[in-house]
Amino acid sequence: MLRLGMMAPFTDGLITSGGFLRDLAGTLEECVVESLWTVEHVAVAERYEPLYPYSDDGRIPGSSGAVPMPDPLETIAFLAGSSSSLRFGTAMIVAPLHSPVVLAKRAATIDRHSGGRLMLGLGIGWQKEEYAAVGVPYKDRGQRLEECVGAMRALWRSGPASYQGRNVSFEGLHSLPRPAGGAVPVVLGGNSDPAVRRAGRIGDGWFPYTITPEDFARQADLLREAARGEGRPEDAVEITVWPGSCDRERAADPSWVRGFVDAGATRLVIAPHVRGSDGISGPRGLDALREQIDRYRAEVLEKLS
Length: 305
Prior knowledge:
- The structure is a single chain.
- This protein has 305 residues and is of the alpha/beta class.
- It has a domain at 36-189: Luciferase-like domain (TIM Barrel, Alpha-Beta Barrel).
- It has helices at 18-30, 72-80, 100-114, 128-134, 141-157, 193-202, 213-229, 254-262, 286-304, and strands at residues 3-7, 35-38, 87-90, 93-94, 118-123, 161-164, 169-173, 186-189, 205-207, 238-241, 267-270.
- The strands form 2 sheets. The protein has an 8-stranded parallel β-barrel with strand order 1-2-3-5-8-9-10-11. The protein has a two-stranded antiparallel ribbon with strand order 6-7.
- Helix 2 runs parallel beside helix 3 (100-114) and helix 8 (254-262) packs across helix 9 (286-304).
- The protein is globular.
- The chain starts with a strand and ends with a helix.
- The mean pLDDT is 94.
């Protein structure tokens, strides 16, 4: 069964409003949306290198990259207290910028308080300036991500926990509380071959970004191949995709979306229409969002089932 998720609207006055977020969580539960996804950048440089990889002009959407991005886990903690069944994911936390020991505690705490509703999406980011500002080397970020996952799982699994890596190591640590289900599901991002293989080897989920159905199908095969190589079942990694991140005009085109589903996606993520009279920042507010969700179900999901 296909699950429906939604990206949080990263618009000032919406993502920065506690009242709006409370109402948004309630609306999504009423509409039986399974999950809400947040994003992270600790900071965005005015000028950055390499360029933003997910737009034609190499710039983050918004004025000089000044898009409001509240801390994703703090936002999810707030939302979890305003809901009872809605799940939450991060897409993605830039894992190498965080202490794995601290991140494990934060994620486990939210997981326990929410009743196991957190999916911890992790990636390596792309912005060298962000790494420099935090004081973390950029070049070994892939290895740092893998060690972050290993260290967190060691802390979640049992105590006293030990882990030895190049960038993080500890002996005999207790980190309580542990997640409600024994571990927080780890969703890994990235479209490149190394990122996809990593997700197949160690991920609970894979969530690529700005990828065509053709490239998605090819990388989904690579994901399953990597899982098999680790002795894991082919379906060990849950696949999430946001079709509109690649082509906004075809986000609700059933023939376009079907390519992702046929290749193995089990969760489709949509982005709400924000601007204009039918957007959620317009006069109709969340009533407009309800109509957007209903229309997507009728025009896309029902045709794929």
